[in-house]
Amino acid sequence: MHLQIITPEFVVFDAEVDAVTLPGKDGEFQLLNNHAPIVATLGEGTIKIKVHTKTFEDFDNQSGKVYSSPSNESTLLLDIKGGTIEMSNNKVIVLAN
After folding, report:
1. pLDDT at 71
2. Which residues pair with 49 in a beta bridge?
3. The 3-state secondary structure of the chain, one letter per residue
4. Which has the closest alpha carbon to 59: 28, 13, 1, 17?
5. Which residues of 15-26 are buried (b: 16+ CB within 10 A; e: fewer)?
6. Exposed, middle or buried by CB within 10 Å (0-12, 13-18, 19+), for 57?
7. Which of 1, 6, 19, 72 could form a disulfide with 90 if both were Cys (CB 3.0 to 4.6 A apart)?
8. CA angle, 42 as apex, 32 and 79 as ends, to 5°?
9. pLDDT value for 51
């Protein structure tokens, strides 16, 4: 699935991902490939993005943290203060602040 994370200043992330875990207003939730369409509000917390290592090597963001795993996947962590998310047709758009 394709994930875009956008702030008022710039596009923070724009790539294919395996999964994304988001801090919802009522608790954390995860989106995977072929998830049903959804619109939700986000609270303060951490977005956890599961990507293939090759995808992450193309990504340049000094504020993210990466943890390697034995399965050749990495998890990128991005702290947000809140926002909204929309998923439709395997495309996730996060408007974060």
Report:
1. 54
2. 20, 76
3. CEEEEECCCCEEEEEECCEEEEEECCEEEEEECCCCCEEEEECCEEEEEEEEHHHHHCCCCCCCEEEECCCCEEEEEEEECCEEEEEECCEEEEEEC
4. 13
5. bebbbbbbbeee
6. exposed
7. 1
8. 85
9. 86
**Tens-digit pLDDT profile for the chain (97 aa)?**
999 999 999 999 999 999 999 999 999 999 999 999 999 999 999 999 998 755 454 455 555 554 444 455 688 999 999 999 999 999 999 999 9
pTM for this entry: 0.79
How many angstroms separate the CA atoms of 43 and 28, rounded?
Answer: 9
